[in-house]
C-alpha cells in the first residue's frame, strides 16, 4: 500500500448540501425551509431565550440585591505569609508574584493581619489593614501604601 493509494471508507464522505441553486438541484424554490411559517422567513430564527412570545424565564424570575460594577477586588496577603521573606529588608509587588504568594494582582494587593512576624520588614502594598500595619510596626518594620 502506498500513500497515494489511500482512500476514505465508502460512504464516509458526503457531498455538501447546496441550497437555493434552482429546482434542478433538488434544493431549490423553498431552499429546504418548507412552506411558510416563522422559520421559513428571513430573520426567522429567534434568540436563545425566546419562548414563543411568553415572558422569558429570565424576566419572570425576581432579581434581588445589588452588584456594584465599580467594586475593587484585591489579592490578599496575610502577615503570617511574610515569614518567607526572612532575611530580606524590602518586599515589593514583584516579590509577592515571584514567591508565588500572589498569582494575579487584580486591583492591587491587600495586607491583612492574620498570623505573626518576628523580624523587621518594609512592605510595599496597595492596601493594608490597621492591625497589619500595627503588627509590622511593633517588630520595627514599616508598611508603605503605594498607589494602584
Kindly describe this structure.
The chain is an alpha/beta fold and 148 residues long. The chain has a domain at 75-145: Ribosomal Protein L15, Chain: K, domain 2. The chain is 14% helix and 14% strand. The protein has helices spanning 57-60, 93-99, 130-138, and strands spanning 75-78, 90-91, 109-112, 122-125, 127-128, 142-145. The radius of gyration is 33 Å and the shape is elongated.
Task: Describe the SSE topology.
Elements: H1 57-60, E1 75-78, E2 90-91, H2 93-99, E3 109-112, E4 122-125, E5 127-128, H3 130-138, E6 142-145
Parallel strand pairs: 1-3, 2-4, 3-5, 4-6
CATH topology (level 3) name of the domain at 75-145:
Ribosomal Protein L15, Chain: K, domain 2
Q: What class would the helix/strand composition place it in?
A: alpha/beta
Order of helices and strands: HEEHEEEHE
CATH-level-2 architecture of the domain at 75-145: Ribosomal Protein L15, Chain: K, domain 2
Q: Work out the radius of gyration.
A: 33 Å
How would a textbook summarize the main sheet?
3 strands, parallel
Instruction: Please tally the β strands and state the result.
Output: 6
Estimate the helix proportion, in percent: 10-25%
CATH C-level name of the domain at 75-145: Alpha Beta
CA-CA gap between termini: 67 Å
From the structure above, extract its key features:
3 helices; 148 residues; elongated; 14% helix; 6 strands; Ribosomal Protein L15, Chain: K, domain 2; alpha/beta; three-stranded parallel sheet
